[in-house]
Amino acid sequence: MLHTGGCHCGRVAFEFESDPAVLVHECNCSICKLTGFLHLIIPRADFTLLSDWDNLSTYTFNSGIAKHYFCRHCGIKSFYVPRSNPDGISIQFRCVEQSTFSDIQIEPFDGANWEQNAAKLAQLSD
Q1: If I label 114, which of 27, 68, 103, 124 is the partner at 20 to 30 A Cα–Cα?
Q2: Number of alpha helices (DSSP H) and beta strands (DSSP E) in the chain
Q3: Rounded-to-10 torsion of CA 45, 51, 57, 79
């Protein structure tokens, strides 16, 4: 099923394929805890950016593997490339039109202890 999402000002828009029933992860790592990020990790091939990449700024930290993309106009991070799934996209579920989903399950993820738990997410971008 096709779903849509984007940033606050609308300059970043995307669509993606996923089942209408999803498992979303609520992470307690340093950045997700502060921003309230709810992860819906999907294969990169199922994600299409509808707007121009020039509307995005990138932030990296620590290993530099994760690529955090922010709207350079309103500052919202509606998706990023996660370190746990560099071949996937983690969508901020709060930035998604949720009426197209039939079932939404939220599961805690212990990202504060990332090294011990990252493997639990690895299959999500397959």
Answers
A1: 103
A2: 2, 10
A3: -40
Cα 32 to Cα 9: distance, rounded to the nearest angstrom = 21
pLDDT digits (tens, 9 = 90+) for 32-74: 999 999 999 999 999 999 999 999 999 988 888 899 999 999 9
* Number of domains making up the chain: 1
Q: What is the pTM of this model?
A: 0.92
Q: Among 58, 13, 7, 18, which residue's Cα sits nearest to residue 41? A: 18
- What's the Cα-to-Cα distance from 120 to each of 24, 29, 48, 109, rounded to whole Å? 13, 15, 25, 9
Reported residue count of the chain is 126
Where residue 110 sits, what CATH number does that domain have?
A: 2.170.150.70
Q: Which helix (H) or strand (E) holds 33?
A: helix 30-35
Q: How many angstroms separate the CA atoms of 122 and 43, rounded?
A: 11
